[in-house]
Every structure is written in structure tokens, then in C-alpha cells.
Structures
1.
Amino acid sequence: MAEYEEWKIYCYDEVTSTNDVIKDYCSEPKQKIVVWAKNQTEGRGRLGRRWQSLRGNLFFSCALEIDMADLSGLVILCGLSLCQIIKELNPQNLVQIKWPNDVLINEAKVSGMLLEKGPNDYIIIGIGVNIINYPQAIDIIYKTTSLQHENITISPENLLKCFISKFNANKNLWQHCGNNEKLVASWLKFAKGIGKKLLVRQNNVEICGMFQGIDANGCLLLENEQGVCHIRAGDVFYTEEN
Ligand code: BTN
């Protein structure tokens, strides 16, 4: 176990899923925990999908105790922190967030996040970043890429450390200002498709509308003839050039 900026980091060569293993460490109160693995055999993605875990990439989960009222802020914070780091590593790249929390470089997905409830009051955020490999199977519904492919060279360990530092800094700013307003504004600067037409697919239901932003809870705001819908979960498809 290593410690970095108040976070306890547990490192494994191989696990089923870091989101599962981290639950074993959530017994003591008030810990900030990271489980990092070099490989996952049962990596999970959002909406019941599999997360293809190719060696050389970064797979980690963070667990911390939070007030449920702060959950949305925390999720926004994670996506924003990763976008900022990736942009700093190579400012030439177009770095965007695709709601809710996919990070895109030059229009292709490089990272995804999976939020789950942990034991006690812990919340678990699992993050996967394609560093040197990216899945290219035909059943993948989005274009994918890796940091290496976009001219960024960094080791999984250093990227993890950058993330923790950026996350801590953003979290302090956020807690200092007492609401999600500034955080949402920073997130929106990276958001792909603001003011454009989107299609959101939830199971077998599809909703179309204009992407107006996100609310303070992180819900997607989609405006159509029915008014403004606040959408909690779903897959976003861009139906208009951005
Ligand atoms: C998605 O975009 O669908 C979310 C992907 C989340 C993948 C990460 S990798 C680390 C953690 N462990 C998992 O099993 N999933 C998350």
C-alpha cells in the first residue's frame, strides 16, 4: 500500500474489477481509498456493458464517504479533472466530455467512468483510461482511441497521481464555494454538443432534443416540444455536426 496526498493506494497486478475489490477496504470510516490494477478480468462499463481491460491501460477505483447531496458534484468533478489533465498533457488535442462522463480526444472515447454505491456511506468511482491500447471490436458503438494514439506519453502510475492531485485541488475549490455552479460552468466548457440536437437512448426508449447543458444534479437537459427533460441515465448520440 502506498500513500499519496492523503489517499491510500492499493496496487494489484490483476483483479476481477477494481470496483469490486475496493469494497473490501471500505470498512473503516473517513478513508480516501484507491485500488489500482494493471489488469482486470471482469471490467465493467456503464449500463451493464463490459469494459475491455487491455494491459498497459489504467484501471482504478476511488472510494470516499460523501453526503448523498454531494454525489452529483463529485461525478462532475471526476470528469472535469480528467479532461483538464488530458488537455494539459497535449493542448493541441480537442478534449471533450460526452455526457455523462466519457472523455473524448479528437472525437474518440479515451476514458469512461462507472459510479457505484459502496458499503457504508462510501461511493465508488471506477475509471478506465486507454493509455496505449484501445478496443477496436466491431460491436463497439463509439470510436475509441488511446492517449498514445493522440500523442500523449504517460505511464499509468503518473496519470493516476496527476488525477489524484487534480481531483483534490478541484474538490477543495468546490467545497470552498459551497455549490455546484462554478463546477458545472467549467464542465460545460468541455461538453460536446451544447446547443445541438441529440438523441438519448434509454433501454428501448429514444428521446430527441436540443442539448441545453446539465443541471446542478448532473442530469442532462434536453429541450423539445414537451419542454425541458432532465435525464439521469442513457446513451447520447449526436445527430447534428458539432
Ligand atoms: C463506461 O464508459 O462504460 C465506464 C467504464 C468504467 C471502467 C472502469 S475500469 C476501472 C473500474 N473497474 C471496472 O470494472 N470498471 C471501472
2.
Amino acid sequence: MNTVVLGMQWGDEGKGKAIDYLAGAFDVVTRFQGGHNAGHTVYYQGQKVVLHVLPSGIFYPACQAVIAHGVVVQPLQLVEEINNARALGLSMQNLALSENAPLILPFHQQLDVVFEDSRYQRIGTTRRGIGPAYEDVIGRRALFIKDLLQEEVFRSKITSLAEYYQRLFTAHGHAAGSFDQALDQYLQAGTFLKPYVSNTTNLLQHAFQDKKNILFEGAQGTLLDIHLGTYPFVTSSNTTIAGVFSGTGLSPKAVDRVIGISKAYATRVGEGPFPTELKDESGRMLRERGNEYGSTTGRPRRVGWLDLVALKYAVQVNGVDSLFITKLDVLDELDEIQVATAYESEDGSGDRFFVHADALSRVRPMYQTLSGWQTNLGAIRCLTDLPLQVRSYLSFIEDFTGVGVSHVSLGGEREQTIEINR
Ligand code: IMP
């Protein structure tokens, strides 16, 4: 079954763990959007590893790991990530990188920082240059991995782009940093990456025709989607189902199943509305128990109750077939758990999600209180051993969203996952 795995919240839902758990059953795992703003945490041979651009399938040598053209790539960062993976003993022969993946260049990173520090557009980005790199794609001036492989082409294209950025930085009252040193580093990275580069659309099309099992690995989450998220506090790509098709070159016919990943509570990093945010002691407790610190930036994450209004929206816009609920064990100590089931707004109350930040920042969440389980879930391995309160919590989510829970995760390790077959 070709399967798409997508985040249902604002990222950090535990997709790394979920994808790593699922990946063993797939022939191909492909990333299709985002860049090294993502941080997918997995445990490999007892060691914590954070992947930023490499697909989680990289840990399975028989699985082809693909970075498709929807992903923006900072070549120096990718070289480092490949070297780190090799140091873990992985051969990396199963990696394919799209020749058409847009490049993140030093100007992009610099511009991201300039905007973030300028107050008038403070999003709380990861400062990795993701937004400006995608802007260049939309603006039709981007450079691609394939450009990096032809020195003269790269030198010529980068020179004209540098002039463009020179003018842009001057207009913002900044000097553009010199690209001269980075140019050689980028070209060296191109030489390093060359053996991995191919036309990944062809590769994926062949895999599909040959009836290989393909896993599509989403990054970030639905509420950070450029079109369907809490704009403008979003990332610059389609983190939702649409990104699969534009980012790989496969059609909806290549997708059999969509799994939505959601934490049993909610978190957000960066700016933007978060209706169920907890700013009190319970929020602090969840942050510590859940180790809610950014895996890419180390920033403390904002923490809140599960927002079922938002989750139902995410299920609907992505056509989710089932949910993978993560970090249930983080709620172990609570005697009561709240879930938001409606919003109160100027228009009255209802369970409609407000996508734009202005409207969403004015809603007041209405909660339903459910019983906690006050049991340590970490060692439980089958559904029937889960306390009744946990099963009621899961049923409540299923009834509200209209889709079943297919997996629950009770800790960071692969084995701390229960698959629910109905
Ligand atoms: P950017 O993707 O770096 O441009 O950041 C835009 C917004 O998306 C900010 O609020 C970031 O904190 C958020 N963001 C980007 N990547 C991730 C992620 O992998 N997890 C959680 N939030 C993210």
C-alpha cells in the first residue's frame, strides 16, 4: 500500500518515529517538501539521531531513500548529514537526490535572518533560508542541484542572482555577504553529491509501475501549510497532501492510504495563534515530560491541549484514512485531560477551524474533560492491555474526527508502538 504520512498539527508530531516504524515494510521512502527546517528524531541502534533532509528510510539498506524535487536543499548541510550517517555505519548507497531540487543559497539564509530580525515580518522561522529559497522558485530565478554539477553554468547563474540579492539587501539597508568563499564550497559539495543525483520523478514512476511500495514522508504539519495553514505563521511549502504530487511527480493514483500523525496533545514552535496553548504549570509539565524542545533549533516548544477542531480540519483537507497518535505516555500522570471540541468566536460557537491567523487568534476554545489513566504506558505492547481511559480517549478522537486510530506510540523506541488492526 503506497502510504503518505503527514503531520496533523504544527509539526513535531513524532513523524520521524512513525515513519521509522513503518519504513521497514516499504521499498521506497521519499521526502517531497520542506528542507532542513525539519528535524525527524529516530533511535538507531539505541542512539538518538536527528534527520533533517535525509528520509527516515535511510536506516533500511534495502529501502531506496529519495529526496524528491519538492525539497529545498542546502548542499553543505546535506553533505554533513550524509557524512554523519556514514559515521553510523550506513552505506548511503540507497540514497537518490533529485537533480531538480532547488538550492538553498547563503543569500536565502541571510535574508531569512534579516526578515526575522526586522519585526515587520516576524514568523519565528528556523532561520535556515527555507522561505526565501521557495520564493526564488515561485519567482522563477531558482538554481537547482543540476546547476551545481556544471561549474560554468553555476558560476554564471550565481553571478546574476548575486546581483539581484545585492540590490535587495541594499534596499533593506544591509550589505549582502560575499559568496566567493561559499561558491567553491558549493561546487565541492556538488562533486560530493553527484553520485546520488538522478531524475527522481523517473525513479518514482518506475517504482510505481513496478508495484513497489512507496512511503511518502511529510515534514512539518498541516497547520504550517502555505495555503491551508495559519497564514502568515506558516512554512513556505505545501505540507499537506497536495505537496506529495507537485513534490514528486507522481499522481493521486499512486497513493493508497494517508496516515495522519498527531500528538495526544499539541505543540507549536515560532509565532502564531495557538488556541489551546497552556501557559501554566500543566503546560510546563507537559513540555518537560514530552521533552518539547526543537530538534532543529533547540527552542522550547509552546504546549497545549489536543485541539480536535484543528485535528478534524487536518483530517478533512488531507483525506486522512487513519490516525497515528503519538506521545500518549506524556499524559500518564494526569488525572484529567482536556480536549477542545469547539471554538467560541464573534460568530457564535461551532467546530469550524479558522485558518487565517487574525481570526484564529480571536477564538476561545471550548473544552471537554476526559479521565486520565495515571498509569505508566511505556511497557504496554498490545491494545487490550491499555487502560480503559486510554481507549476512551482514543475512541473520543475517532468519533470526533470520523477516522480510526491505526497506531499509538507510547515512547521513543520502535517497539513502543501498538498497531490497531480492525
Ligand atoms: P521556516 O519553515 O523555517 O520558514 O519556519 C516557518 C514556521 O514553521 C516557523 O513557525 C517554524 O517554527 C515552523 N517550522 C518549520 N519547520 C518546522 C518543523 O519541522 N517543526 C515544527 N515547526 C517548524
3.
Amino acid sequence: MTQDELKEAVACAALAYVVEGKIVGVGTGSTARLFIEALAGMKDKIAGAVASSDDTKKRLEGHGIKVFDLNDVTDIPVYIDGADEINVAMHMIKGGGGALTREKIVSAVAQKFVCIVDGSKLVDVLGRFPLPVEVIPMARAYVARELVRLGGAPIVREGVITDNGNIILDVEGLQIVDPVDLETRINQIVGVVSSGLFARRPADVCLLGTSSGVRTMTAD
Ligand code: 5RP
């Protein structure tokens, strides 16, 4: 199976986690886009969605799915999104698509995070994929120096401004052996909006696309 076919398989499998009559949180990226296509087939069975990016909002509305402002919502039984890397503890690197902050906010509200990835995203140690960090523009140089102190090599993502009007530093060279600790340390750098490390709030379920089918993983 191709990587796209594996993504499509997990996107369709995620429909089983959508709670009828309720609002679903929807992520961003190519796998989330396939989930939106699949969700369109059951749009009359859900109350609507909360989107993690302007792009996702546009796509959901394009399918006639009502998109709620997060401030008007308290109950999101499930958030469904892809990831750039995930480990067996369900810690993730996200933000390859630049939507990390809103993804983190919507997933914080959701009761359950279902991560949908093809098998290539499962790693022993997070960090080969550069860790995205969203930064207030005037703090760019300071935050970059602090990230170097943490052992990384930050690079400005050229030409990218997030939906929140900020920049992204992609941090290379990290071997993240303690994801919760690193997430906490990065959160403490003044000028950081959020990092793409999702360890303090990991996924609850990972649907992993493999050539032998969709494998369901949970953190024990
Ligand atoms: C976007 C994300 C995506 O979930 C992540 O980049 C994975 O994307 P894809 O499904 O295209 O592989 O965090 O900000």
C-alpha cells in the first residue's frame, strides 16, 4: 500500500470514534484532510466541528459541516488529527503543517485525542523530525538562543506566518528522551507561543496504518 492509502485507511477508521450528535475536533494536514473527506459522509449525524486551522475550517464548511468557535463549545468528546512523529507512550511531534498552537488548544479541550498516522510516523525516540516552535516575531532571536541552550539547532521556517500571525522555528538535532520535560522547558521560554511537542497531553489512541491493516495503539 502507498503512504496515501495508509493515511486514507486510518482516516476512515477514525470515523468509529466520532460521537453521533456531538461536536468533533478536527486537525490539520494531509491525513486530517482525508478524515474531513470521510467525515463528510456522516455530516448529518454530527452537531458540527471545531477546526484547528483556517484551512481545516474552510474544508469543513466546503462540505457543509457547521464549524463552531471554540469559545462557544465546552464538550468535544474526540479530537482527530495526524502527527509528524509518535512514540509508544503516545507523545507526538506535530506542527509540520504549522497549525500546532490551535491543534494544542483544541486537543486540550477534547476528552479524547485520536491520532491517525501511517506506520512511518512511529519512532523509538522523537526528534528526527524537526520540532516546530511557534514564536512571537519580536522574540525570534532570543527564543532561538534559548533553544540552542537546550541542545537544538533552530531554523526559521521561511515564508510562513501562522494563522495567529506568528513565525515558526523548526528545531533540528534533538533527541527527545524526556518529552514531558522538554515540552515544559520550551513552554517556559518567554516569547514561545507553543511547541509542537505533545507530551503533557499525549494522544489517547493511535490508529497506525500498516500494510497488514490498521493497528490500534493505546498508552498503557
Ligand atoms: C499540522 C500537523 C499535522 O498533523 C502533521 O504535520 C502531520 O501531517 P500529515 O498528515 O500531512 O502527515 O501537525 O500542523
